[in-house]
Amino acid sequence: GQQVMQIPQYQHVQEGEDFTTYCNSSTTLSNIQWYKQRPGGHPVFLIQLVKSGEVKKQKRLTFQFGEAKKNSSLHITATQTTDVGTYFCAGPGTPKGGYNKLIFGAGTRLAVHP
Amino acid sequence: DTEVTQTPKHLVMGMTNKKSLKCEQHMGHRAMYWYKQKAKKPPELMFVYSYEKLSINESVPSRFSPECPNSSLLNLHLHALQPEDSALYLCASSQDPGVAGGKYTGELFFGEGSRLTVL
């Protein structure tokens, strides 16, 4: 089935450093979503990207969707300890029963050291 | 605060027990989901209900039985589970199920999860 590959698996940064996680698909994605899961918490929706080459910003977070709609990235500028958690990209898997389904990448765990 | 409520938060059960996980949302969403998440892994889709009908079953073993009594409620009935079924079970909802071929896939609102331990 369709998969989204996500790297890196794990990243340590010092507070104030930047962080980027990447998502890649072998096939064109109609859209891609990003979620954040704090330790011990549940995934929380961050954003959905739909258009080729789309760039969206949320404060220190910048989301990009590639021109070919096969890759996406999340960049955090000047990380803070509140950014700790696992960041998942999620894309539509092979449709089933006439409906899209959301398939999650493996996630990138971000640790921020003060 | 999450608008998707799951109960119980924690559940310990033996392999011969029958138990149920419950999920409720009052956002008027028409799609509801069960995901399973093992430690340090991504959520793994189990079932999707679209407009109160089971639309996707990801080849989940029959010891897991979903039920959608109405548009606000979603249950997951558990019977004869195995220790490897221990995991965090996440319920989610979205405004609409994403139609195959469409640009949008519904934004998921997750509950806090039910942490299940099978002894």
Please give a handful of descriptors for the protein shown.
heterodimer, A: 114 residues, mainly beta, five-stranded antiparallel beta sheet, 0% helix, B: 119 residues, seven-stranded mixed beta sheet, four-stranded antiparallel beta sheet, globular
Tell me what the structure shows:
The complex is a heterodimer of chains A (114) and B (119). Chain A is mostly beta strands and 114 residues long. Helix content of chain A is 0%, strand content 53%. Chain A has no helices and eleven strands. In chain A, strands 2, 4, 5, 9, 10 and 11 form a six-stranded mixed sheet that branches. In chain A, strands 1-3-8-7-6 form a five-stranded antiparallel sheet, with no helix packed on it. In chain A, β6 (55-58) and β7 (61-65) form a beta hairpin. The N and C termini of chain A lie far apart (40 Å). Chain B is an all-beta fold. Chain B has strands at residues 4-7, 10-13, 18-25, 31-37, 44-50, 53-57, 64-70, 73-79, 87-94, 109-110, 114-118. In chain B, the strands form two sheets. In chain B, strands 2, 4, 5, 6, 9, 10 and 11 form a seven-stranded mixed sheet that branches. In chain B, β7 and β8 form a beta hairpin. Chain B starts with a strand and ends with a strand. The model of chain B has no long low-confidence stretch (mean pLDDT 92). The chains are: A mainly beta (114), B mainly beta (119).
